[in-house]
Specification:
Four copies of one chain form a homotetramer. The first copy, chain A, has a single domain, classed as 4-Layer Sandwich (Chorismate synthase, AroC fold). In chain A, the strands form six sheets. A five-stranded antiparallel β-sheet of chain A has the order 1-2-3-7-4, covered by helices on one side. A five-stranded antiparallel β-sheet of chain A has the order 9-8-10-16-11. In chain A, strands 5-6 form a two-stranded antiparallel sheet. In chain A, α1 packs across α8 and α3 crosses α8. Chain A has 362 residues and is α+β, with helices and mostly antiparallel strands. The two termini of chain A are 30 Å apart. Chain A contains eight helices and 18 strands. In chain A, β5 and β6 form a beta hairpin. Chains in contact: A-B, A-C, A-D, B-C, B-D, C-D. β11 of chain C pairs antiparallel with β11 of chain D, so a sheet runs across the interface.
């Protein structure tokens, strides 16, 4: 099922950037989960460009809870969130055939034979992630009540490193409110400077998002195809612009010795822990009760306000093409809340499988 | 479905290291695909330790085609390959409770409450990958007849780089026969030296596998959850010891500018190509007709013949524990054929979805 | 996935009777299928009470194509149809706890612990079938272009038999326009008379729907779990009030001899046919190229305007309870178009699996 | 996934009648379920012809537990049961092309283009149900420990009615041991007489199996596509020769009035019950805590030792064809244990979804 993901808890996506609406259906939610519309709105705000590092354009993203909520709580039946599009007309089809490099214009044509909606990227638009964020917010809320917390920061942006996670509770609180999710103020300032410089140069920049999840019990996930790494990477690579995912020390483990890569187990207050966490809280595909830790590489946004070589796949000619309009030179900070949301959806699914359909609402 | 993966073409795993048998059921295969038992055996050989870099132990891996093959060709009904285990008795349960660091002993206990089979790692054993290799071999053969070729080399091992892919046809031929899949002879010698040194030190080493797939048509894959990256990473992270996956330039794209990350489209002999391939042959989750390119980080094998700190999760005590027996100091080269196999299974699935159930057999 | 059904072509349901909207997401549709909004509206009309046999209440069922359609044709990406509810307020919750016999009030409470939306039956409302009809209409249109035609008549209603299918093309044309899908005029009059009598008696009646599908190629379906019977029955039993499904001669085959039950194969103009069709066009779970034939038993609507014994599951007391409001004494004729729609969704899925993702749009 | 069925608990089938082995992989089982090999063997015996009503042929059906069992209990990882075939050679392919009426010979050819294994029916053989029975036995055992009991009798055979279920505990005990599952001794004798007469006439007979399940909690199942009726019928129609399925009063409800069809709710010792059970223990697709009740129509076996009209689909000619060999004139009694097994698999899945992965093993 192409636009449906998840087993016990599943999400189904629909919509195009310039069609009437986009949205998602979240199915398998426990009954009785409080639906906090203000928190959904807050999460959608974190997905929007809202500071000097992004364009002035605003996407208000009002949302409608079409089903699955009654008296402020989930019913246990499918919850549909719909986000009406305010812009439904566009001149983009006038440029149809002119493949933007790094975009899906040409591959969409190869797959859909010209029937795809090209306006604003159609179904490929990053705007669709708003539906993931809105539904993810409900699961994030439910996980919090189980003392499971997800936080993501921009560990590296524009070639500049943020500091690592420190006191998780403090960092979590800080990141929850920050549209630009960097922990270190100097690093943040440097990144923003680099973004403005890239913007002036009609270019764009990428970064690495690092996520930590605390509070997961040991014993969640499966040995092979439904390993925590498998399911999370499946979800994370669904996010546009993500081109790499690593767990724990990830690619650095390729250069480590076994004696460095192994995390020694220890008893701590009657509980099994590991004394370090190079494996990201996962052994054999299953959570070990430590913090879940992973990183996503986000490529620079491909929309550049400069001339690029490409083709017109309708005429079959080589052309030079310059995009117009407003385009962000940086999107990795906006992808943060999408990463949090996809993480919540996967963990919500695994916990529902493990403990049954009422678990998240209890 | 925990041990079943795939949609139009699916694989279901079963088995433990020291149980009667392990194996896999491959369902959704087109009828009429020739089943080359010698090629299956060859692929299984590539998974075995067979040179000085690995232990002297031999796992002969004889296999039985239990169903789905008639007169040397696939029938179109489920194909079961079974690999009997020669060693079914083991003293491993005598050590039950002593969690090997980096292994799934503790997480299996957390999940299965002590009912898991601990002998030789049970269902978590890397030996189960033999079933993936055997079934993958059949799909690899079918893809070859469609001029789709998969090759993986050890791009980096023990901290030493192999040369990049050059002439693909030549490299493909070379790698197909090499148990130690390194293109550059000097790099190979250096890696083997490092492995022997690590072995002498009772330690282990990791590496990075790089895969290229040629011959895929444009237009395969889906925009969101079933993006080529999503499905491949799901499959690749199912392989034990894989802790990172990246497509195209991957994590390096996080540091690139958009003008560097974008791959310009060009017309070449009436066909759309890109003049470089930083995106690994995928735009918007869908193949663009260029070579598919990705890399997997393989952590060093966690089995070390040296004393390690850990716990006994039965008694709840901190202990020091030293493994005995034979253990490989390096497994990344063996994982190569598992990567090829999982890649074939995912691509076979996507092509069957796209073109129908007869496609791979035509 | 609880509210998602189908593999290559899937439908995801959402909505409650008195929430903001209900609808469905149809995913996996071929690109380029013409979307005929007038035909969708026509099909929705067939689902509405529109003659003397039903209540005077009208449900206008306006629909919105939220996604997946561009310039009048399917894009190949998810198509969402949303049907806003005009009545969102209700006094039904005032009666919460008083379980209507034959309804899901009590089982919903057992499953959702009181968090379910009780207004108008909530997610259990027959009104949700409008979403199935609207999405099914698009697939029905696509199948027609492949010369695959689905027709359902009320083979038995109120204890009165309709005549069997005769000339299929004529019967198909007749049924396509009739809100009360009975072929024989006398039988129709008798059924309508019986319905009015039942209404006067504050009671309700059921019937049997019989479906024929022509034009299917041989070789569609699977031997075991995805047999045509398995998938169709799964879909048909999803329709509220359906309590029996049989294929070909169905239950009558239990009393037949093998020599009567077998359908002899014959050559006819170079094509394999059967000289009769007791097996309903299916052998071994797979279509044999003959007309697909099956029947659904539809129980009488459980909403009765008379006093019934039941319980209040909130107070735990036995009570007598009399429904108020308008309720149809007969719904089997309205279920007809739901049966057609579910049949189209299943067949569209099987054909897409068999022939690939472009098939229905070609 | 064609030969995989189930969500939280799934079964994957493989095998042909005359290939090396057939079997099934059962995945998602709770850890710690005792595996009673004697009970598996007993269930397999019930599937075999073992009395005067069937042929003298014996299929010993020895089975091998290849994985998923350790020290007599399920591990929680995939459990593979394999049943080696003793007869692997056959002359059936000598008759290839001669389509047996009522069999899948022609539809298999239409689907698999001649690559199918024709020996003994290949993957379509009723013998494959042995794998369902063997795996189902394990789930039946686990359900019993939860006080959930499944019993099926031959409610009608050869046109003769058995008595209805009476005292369930007594009937359950009786049926558990009887190869010919008829409750009334006179009916049994009459049926057996009719079978022998049909045999003498080279003909075959069918019947209706009626199943009751006690002990299910209320609140299991889903409103729409995963209704208890939908999932059970999906599973039941996978059984060869089943051509009709009805729940509760089923087709008789089509002729009932609403006042007859509704089951009044009542309080009984603090628990909600219904005072009769015309709806078969299901309201709105969800269990209501009453006995689950359904019936399957089993057509007469199509293998007749008499001349039948058919075609040779290889030569394209009309022919008369007479089967040779031993063939049962009656199989409905043997299908009983397959119905019990499929029922257990579906209910085990629904309960695992509802209460989590440990539920059946606790």
């Amino acid at each position: 099922m192409k636009n449906t993901f998840g087993s016990a808890l599943s999400v189904t996506l629909f919509g195009e950037s310039h069609g009437p609406s986009l949205g998602a259906v979240l199915d398998g939610l426990a009954p009785g989960i409080p639906v906090d519309e203000a928190f959904i709105a807050h999460q959608l705000t974190l997905r929007r460009p809202s500071d000097g590092t992004s364009t002035a354009r605003r996407e208000p993203d009002p949302f409608v809870l079409e089903s699955g909520v009654y008296r402020g709580k989930t019913t246990g039946t499918p919850l549909c969130i719909r986000i009406p599009n305010t812009v439904q007309h566009s001149d983009d089809y006038a440029f149809y055939g002119k493949a933007r490099p790094g975009h899906a214009d040409y591959t969409a044509y190869a797959k859909y034979h010209g029937f795809e909606d090209p306006r604003g990227g159609g179904h490929f638009s990053g705007r669709i992630t708003a539906a993931l964020v809105a539904t993810g917010a409900i699961v994030i809320s439910a996980l919090k009540k189980k003392n499971i917390f997800i936080a993501t920061h921009l560990a590296r942006g524009c070639g500049i490193n943020d500091r690592p996670f420190g006191n998780f509770a403090e960092d979590y609180a800080l990141l929850s409110e920050k549209p630009f999710p960097v922990l270190d103020a100097e690093a943040e300032a440097a990144m923003k400077g680099a973004i403005l410089a890239a913007k002036a140069d009609c270019d764009s920049l990428g970064g690495i998002l690092e996520t930590a999840v605390t509070g997961l019990p040991a014993g969640v996930g499966e040995p092979w195809f439904d390993s925590v790494e498998s399911l999370l990477s499946h979800a994370l690579f669904s996010i546009p612009a993500v081109k790499g995912v690593e767990f724990g020390d990830g690619f650095a483990l390729a250069d480590a010795r076994g004696s460095e890569a192994n995390d020694p187990f220890r008893m701590e207050r009657g509980r099994v822990i590991t004394s370090k966490n190079s494996n990201g809280g996962i052994n054999g595909g299953i959570t070990n009760g430590m913090s879940l830790s992973f990183r996503c590489a986000v490529k620079p946004t491909p929309s550049l306000l400069r001339s690029q070589q490409t083709v017109d796949f309708v005429t079959g000619e080589n052309i030079d093409f310059t995009l117009t309009g407003r385009h962000d030179p940086f999107i990795a900070h906006r992808a943060r809340v999408v990463v949090d949301s996809m993480t919540a959806l996967v963990l919500g699914d695994l916990l529902t499988q493990r403990y049954g359909t009422d678990y998240l609402g209890e």
